Amino acid sequence: MTTPELPGASSQQTVPHQQPQFPPMPPMPPNYGPPGASGPQEYAKAKKQRNTIGLVALISAIVGFIFACMPGALIIGWVLLPIAFILAIVSLFLKDKAKGMGITALILSIVGTIVGFAVFFSVVTSSAKDAFGSGDTKVSAPTAEAAGDAPAAAKPAAKAGTRENPSPIGSVVESKDWKVVVNSVTLAASDAVVAANRFNDAPAAGSEYILVNYSATYVGDDANGETPSFVSVAYVTADGKTINAYDHNVVAPEEIDSNTLYKGGTATGNIAIQVPTATAGQGVLAVRPGMMADKVFVAVK
To answer: Which residue, 158, 165, 153, 297, is CA-closest to 234?
Structure first.
């Protein structure tokens, strides 16, 4: 007996070994990474890392460049710019590191060095012009001495203030920044110098200490003032040898103060110089009223 076939039954029969059907998958988003990067991990690996050394080089170059343009702080620029240059070179050879900051630092360090040298030579040229080109160092004899020498004025003499014709004690030696007056010179002052400080050594055999008392007045316009250390007073022997106070480290009695002076300020005091005893009175004093001013020679008696 034949079983009747229901309508549509054949259409529901499953074909043997037929794979089940699934809805299609949505398309993958496009890859916007760099060439050769097929995924987020490879993209992160391909991305170059920050160059810390290059950053330090760039900061050093910027700060050094700024200081190189400032005449009063050139030394800071000269320290930072070479450091920036070396670090910039090192940063350019680091593998898988960004090179932009290193290149910028390298350029800034080179340009900053050139600017620094230009500023330095400009300052030196200006200082040399002020100190030497203007010829502003002058000497004036004391009024009493000038009056006493009036009868001998007709006698020819060498230029005043030279070794051959030193200016008398009390003369005013002046530059654009300093006015210096040698008030007195005390020969054979060894006992006073040795007694001034227990650490002072006695003079060497055949030598003695002399005391030079002088006043240094600041007449410049620097708002920060200057120290009397810019003024120098040395002794020149009869045979032409210069002896400075710092050649023999002793503390003079009532030693001159080296604190900063402002316009109109004066420091007065002594310095001790060890000189040959036999010719102590035959030497002269070399007075320089400022670090770059010309010397003027003053007699010791």
So the answer is: 297
CATH of the domain at 245: 2.60.40.1240
Q: Which one of 114, 133, 152 terminates a domain?
A: 133
- Tally of structural domains, the chain: 2
**Residue 45 domain-assigned (yes or no):** no
Is the same domain home to 86 and 165? Answer: no
- Asked if residue 170 and residue 66 are part of one domain, the reply reads no
Strands across the sheet containing 231-236: 242-243, 231-236, 284-289, 296-299
Q: Residue 35, CB half-sphere, CA atoms under 13 Å: how many?
A: 0
180 and 278: one domain?
Answer: yes
Residue 1 covered by a domain:
no
Please enumerate, as own/partner, the contacts of 190-197 that have beta carbons within 8 Å and a separation of 24 or more. Answer: 192/253, 193/250, 193/252, 193/253, 193/272, 195/253, 196/250, 196/251, 196/252, 196/253, 196/272, 197/250, 197/251
At what angle are helices 100-128 and 74-92 packed, to 10 degrees? Answer: 160
According to DSSP, the residues that pair with 172 across neighbouring strands are: 140, 181
As a whole number of angstroms, the distance between CA 234 and CA 273 comes to: 8
Instruction: Write out the residue range of the structural domain in which residue 71 sits.
Output: 52-133
Chain segment 32-66, per-residue pLDDT in tens: 555 555 555 555 544 567 888 888 888 988 988 88
Q: Tokens 């006992």, residue?
A: 191
For the stretch 95-127, pLDDT in tens is: 878 888 888 888 988 988 888 888 777 777 666
**Closest residue by Cα to residue 33 from 21, 41, 25:** 41
CA 189, 190, 192, 196 dihedral sign is: positive
Residues in the chain, overall count: 301
